[in-house]
Amino acid sequence: MKKLFALPLLALVSLSSAKAAGQMDTAAAARQIDSVLAKDWAANKLHGNPQTDDNTFVRRIYLDVIGRIPTTRETEEFLNSKEADKRARLIDKLLSSEAYVQHFFNYWADVLRVTSNGQQTGGITGAAYANFVKDSLRKNQPYDQFVREMVAAQGKAWDNGAIGYYMRDRGMPLDNMANTVRVFLGTRIECAQCHNHPFDKWTQMQFYKMAAFTYGVQTQDYGGDTMSGVTDLMREKESAVRASIKEPQRPQRPNINGKTPPAERERLQKEYAAAYKKYEADMKEVNKKREEARQVLRKEQRGYQEAMNDVRDTMRYTSVSTRERKPTLPHDYQYSDAKPKSAVEPGTMMGHECITQNGETPLQAYARWMTSPENPRFTTVIANRLWKRVFGLALIEPLDELMDTSVPMIPEMEKQLEKLVVDMKYDMKAVLRVLYNTKTYQAQVTREEHAPGNVYHFTGPLLRRMSAEQMWDSFVTLINPSPDMINQANRDVMEQRILQAKKIADGVESLSPEEALAGLKKAADIYSKNRERTDAQQKLFAEARTAYKDAREAAEAMPEGAAKVAALAKADELKKKSDAIRTEVNRIQNEGRRVTFAEVVVPGQKRLFEKVTGKPYQMVSMTKSSGGAEAGSSSMMMSGGGEMMMMANGAKVEKISIPGYDRKELSKEEQKAVAQKARDAYAEEADFFGIKDEKERKYYINSRERISRDTLRAAELESPAPRGHYLREFGQSDRETIENANNDASVPQALAMMNGSLLPQITSKYSQLMLTVNKAPYADEKVDAAYMTILSRKPTAAEKAVWLKAQDSGLTSMEDLVFSLLNTQQFIFIQ
């Protein structure tokens, strides 16, 4: 028995030792950072800021690491802990959480301009790209590998979400290169696209040499061999139609020479002239017939193109590949090192050469060069990004406009930080762990505003305003007692969007071009039959939309008053008319779409099912489950018996489940277990907040299910959030340009807080805030609870006095206090 216990015990000791060693390494590295800073302070006759108290620290670390304020429960748990290393333990806990992934995703979504809502990257690749970024952070992928996978990305969105990096700049390879150099090398080279950089050393030639590395990257729709084959068949048909209308034989010129008698010469010339005239007349008739046939074919092929677009639209912007293509210099290139319009070979702008190694593509070589520790600026940029995340300011500002003349505010600290990043093998979480454990980070904030161009000696973090995402996620925390509970339904929708595209693509590829063409013909016939109706309705729609826009603009330009109200109402009526016509256009077009999916997509998926399972589709579909089939059985793999699914374009088609191509459906027992787990968590919350009555507990649990479904953290929503969402009002980036977020206060923010639906949610009966407040038995304790929930501390005597005075003025409700606290700098800023 002793031998049986020896190995586990040894493993436990080893694990504990490794963890202790890791903590010692973190602590030692943190002390080195503090030491370098202390040396700089001494040289400049400065002192570090005083250390924070636990209340300030817990609020700050939650906001900095996971992007939200702590719940009252989390705050009190930390404050009540007696462990000497409770700060380090909390840092580790937060860095290991899913909430860290969500918060850090918000940052990288801003830097990388991640759009998951179908704008530039498309809905499929956008979702896959967002998942790639989140998964990379979730796995704690080293930063250099994270970047390499994006810069070397190739393939289909469903196989490699990193292709979203190139799809984000679809069709703009020069802009993509400039963005790459700015984001990862901290260098602004875009000015050198048109001429040598006016303020830096970069030449126009260097710009094009760098662009040559990725100029051959192709961002495109995924067509596949089958659809390409269909196009070839249609071209063959066009050629066959043209060839079927035979050309007359061109008459040969008569063989006339000096020995030909004059009379014979004249006769031959007359015969040739008559024959050629007839040939021209015949050719005119042939060309007329060919043009008529071409017009008929074009009309027919328009229907085919619409049907083919139905298929392509399901896979739009999902493929990135490379081909041999070199950029050429502009026609007005003015420098002596090359001629205008010359092709340009790849060449690095800094550091060592980029040499393609055996088994490596040129794009992979470029990505390896980009992320090498030997690349002079790659490490500098990420080191400064992480430092700025922690302290609010980079050691080199701006961190994405480095020049040879750039000097760090504390040069020795810059060297130490870059060494730390390399020693940690670009482990961003490990570097952040070190920085958060420094005494300098845990010191009080510096409240003086930092003026650009001045040196800041980092005596503590800078006072910062919350980002839009931190603000929103903190509101979510005030509403939701468990704010980090993920919304699996939202994630499932995103995953299924990607899997459906893969299933359609592979299904269509399972058909021969001839089979696909036969199905497309049926849809094309419908489109052709509906052509006159469709064109008429589209014309009406264009007219109605123009009328609405004109009426709206005219109404908005009018002075305030009854006339303007009436004009706006009339404009709204025109919009309803426009929308109704658009609906009718969609209804007509959906007739063709339904046929495309029924005759091409569904047969392809049936063929794919047979390919994957090795079983005939019809046999499997007839063995419909009666409710007792196990997951993975044939009856569960194939949803037969007329079950339908809705496509993104509104068409309903037969649902065909294929192993590996659909998100795993939970059994009824598994669904019950998941639901019960959530309800158990809600029941535990009810116990914590003292909800004892069975009827109220039931009502609470039902209410919590709604809150968890409707009140989601920023990273669980589309990126960026829709226009008009609170996130956008509070300055979330529109993802159009790099780091385009705005953290400044604005009038729309104030109006949103005053007039929006947010405050009623925060002060609703079962919000985390009001549950905490109502748990307190006495009025003064309720005020304490409000302060603790919103600011992670109790009110000072002076603040209590102010509130008592406010009550004398009529501000007696808890809503008044909450509104006041939410609009204080104490709440809005990270101290």
Topology:
Blueprint: H1 2-43, H2 54-66, H3 72-80, H4 86-95, H5 98-112, H6 123-138, H7 143-151, E1 155-156, H8 164-167, H9 173-185, H10 204-214, E2 217-220, H11 224-244, H12 262-313, E3 319-322, H13 362-370, H14 378-391, H15 411-423, H16 428-436, E4 464-465, H17 468-479, H18 488-509, H19 513-529, H20 531-556, H21 562-613, H22 617-622, H23 634-637, E5 644-646, E6 652-654, H24 668-688, H25 694-710, H26 726-729, H27 747-755, H28 758-762, H29 768-775, H30 779-791, H31 797-808, H32 814-822, H33 825-828, E7 829-830
Antiparallel strand pairs: 1-3, 2-3, 4-7, 5-6
Helix pairs in contact: 1-15, 1-16, 2-4, 5-6, 6-18, 7-13, 9-10, 11-12, 11-19, 12-19, 12-21, 14-15, 18-21, 19-21, 20-21, 24-25, 29-30, 30-32
Low-confidence stretches: 1-21, 621-642
Number of separate helices: 33
Strands of the biggest beta sheet: in what spatial order?
1-3-2
The shape is: globular
Assess the beta-strand content as a share of residues.
Answer: under 5%
- Secondary-structure-based class equals mainly alpha
Overview of the structural elements:
The structure is a single chain. This protein has 33 helices and 7 strands. The strands form 3 sheets. The protein has a 3-stranded antiparallel β-sheet with strand order 1-3-2, with no helix packed on it. A hairpin with a 5-residue loop joins strand 5 and strand 6. Helix 1 packs across helix 16.
List keywords for this structure.
831 residues, mainly alpha, three-stranded antiparallel β-sheet, disordered N terminus, globular
